[in-house]
Amino acid sequence: MKIIRTIALAIAMASLAACTNMTKEQQGTVTGGLMGAAAGAGIAAIAGGSAWTGAAIGGAAGGIAGNIRGANQ
Question: pTM here?
Answer without folding.
Answer: 0.70
